[in-house]
Inverse folding.
């Protein structure tokens, strides 16, 4: 995984920092302000979830009832070259008047670790 350093950030991420931990390969990223932050030495890296078999980038409509974006109350999650929204551990992607299901946030038991 390449090292894409996040701009200066005073907050220290870790297991008790209060942000959602997302399992990403052999480490945990922390979902914060629409970014996946990965502690790395003396700085943070910005990561994105890969588009893969478990988290495809496909038109897969799901019942949602939400209009995601801006102030919807769901945290945005970088996924491939787009943003999804964390809806109870499921990745929702607004598309053509509906939401697509782009898989689950990785974590314990296949879903997000809270």
């Amino acid at each position: 995984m390449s090292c894409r350093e996040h701009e200066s950030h005073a907050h220290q991420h870790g297991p008790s920092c209060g942000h959602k931990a997302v399992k990403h390969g052999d480490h945990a990223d922390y979902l914060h302000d629409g970014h996946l932050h990965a502690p790395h030495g003396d700085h943070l890296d910005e990561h994105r979830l890969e588009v893969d078999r478990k988290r495809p980038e496909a038109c897969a409509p799901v019942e949602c009832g939400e209009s995601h974006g801006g102030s919807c109350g769901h945290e945005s999650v970088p996924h491939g070259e787009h943003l999804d929204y964390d809806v109870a551990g499921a990745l929702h992607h607004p598309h053509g008047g509906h939401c697509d299901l782009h898989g689950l946030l990785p974590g314990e038991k296949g879903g997000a670790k809270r």
Q: What stands out?
A: Residues 61-110 form one domain. The longest strand covers residues 98-104. The chain has a mean pLDDT of 84.
